[in-house]
Design goal:
single chain, alpha/beta, 11 helices, eight-stranded parallel beta barrel, about 15% strand
């Protein structure tokens, strides 16, 4: 049973992200990737492959997704609107299908000014809703111009949602975008990292109406300063003060950060249909997090 079928059957799925600062590599050596992923191969349903996350130059997600597929992992190929026009986006999607990649997650992408090549020119020829529509069209046998293509794809189409709105107006806008993405063809959602369980519970009460699987992202905290930085600089992330204080008082920050992540996963189990663990450099602790969370 694959990732798509697991979600459709209501299974609680476990997915992990490979992205900066370690994976995919900023180069061509992938040995470290296999060393970190092989120990959890039988414990996860899919691996999310980021698309130049945070606008940092590194190996592209298409090749990494293909390598994962060859090694028996199920990749989720992230595709951002930032770097490609509609020609290149469609070409990469068709290439992905030919390489056996069935799961995609569509997002707008961070502006290049956030990364290591701030002088790079952004493209944003399409937005995420338009690109989701393109993928749905491929599944129906048409390109963006509604011209028929030779054969049709069957992509499982994912999108992103931000449950941590800082005002009612922003939250309302998020639900509007969520509905538009579903109408465009989105079949499941990945969230921004969740830290405030009560706020997420309130979000899910309304999101249930859409009857679409929602997979929650969980990010281990490494320090109180990291938490404050995320609150100040990363849109869509809100870390409650009690968690920041817990990290601040910790005698063993690594142990405490893992404990918080495990606790959040356990609290999310009955609220969503899976977790997407974003280790941000703590890939070696993935086996511990998954085991202790009992997922």
């Amino acid at each position: 049973m694959d990732f798509k079928e697991n979600l459709k059957k209501g299974k609680f799925v476990v997915t992990v992200e490979i992205g900066p600062p370690i994976l995919p590599p900023k180069g061509i050596n992938c040995d470290n990737m296999w060393e970190l992923l092989e120990p959890i191969k039988r414990k996860i349903d899919a691996v999310g492959v980021t698309d130049l996350k945070s606008s940092v130059m590194r190996t592209g997600g298409l090749s990494i997704s293909h390598l994962l597929k060859e090694r028996g992992f199920e990749p989720i190929f992230f595709l951002s609107c930032r770097d490609r026009n509609r020609l290149a986006l469609q070409a990469d999607l068709l290439s992905a299908w030919i390489l056996g990649i069935k799961n995609v997650a569509i997002l707008t992408g961070d502006h290049p000014s956030a990364g290591d090549y701030p002088q790079a020119k952004p493209v944003f020829d399409l937005d995420s809703i338009q690109l989701i529509t393109v993928v749905k069209g491929f599944n129906e046998g048409y390109d963006m111009n509604r011209d028929p293509i030779d054969g049709r794809t069957d992509f499982f189409i994912g999108a992103t949602v931000n449950p941590s709105a800082d005002s009612k107006a922003v939250q309302e806008l998020e639900f509007i975008k969520m509905e538009k993405k579903i109408q465009a063809g989105a079949q499941y959602f990945l969230t921004q990292p969740i830290f405030d369980i009560q706020a997420f519970n309130e979000f899910m009460e309304r999101a249930k109406q859409f009857k679409v699987p929602i997979i929650d992202s969980v990010m281990p905290l490494k320090s109180a300063s990291m938490a404050r930085f995320l609150n100040k600089n990363v849109a869509g992330i809100f870390i409650p003060e009690n968690l920041i204080e817990e990290m601040e008082k910790a005698t063993d920050r690594q142990k405490t950060g893992i404990q918080i992540a495990v606790r959040i996963i356990q609290q999310l189990k009955d609220l969503c249909q899976g977790v997407y663990i974003m280790p941000v450099g703590w890939e070696k602790f993935l086996p511990q997090i998954i085991t202790e969370a009992n997922i």
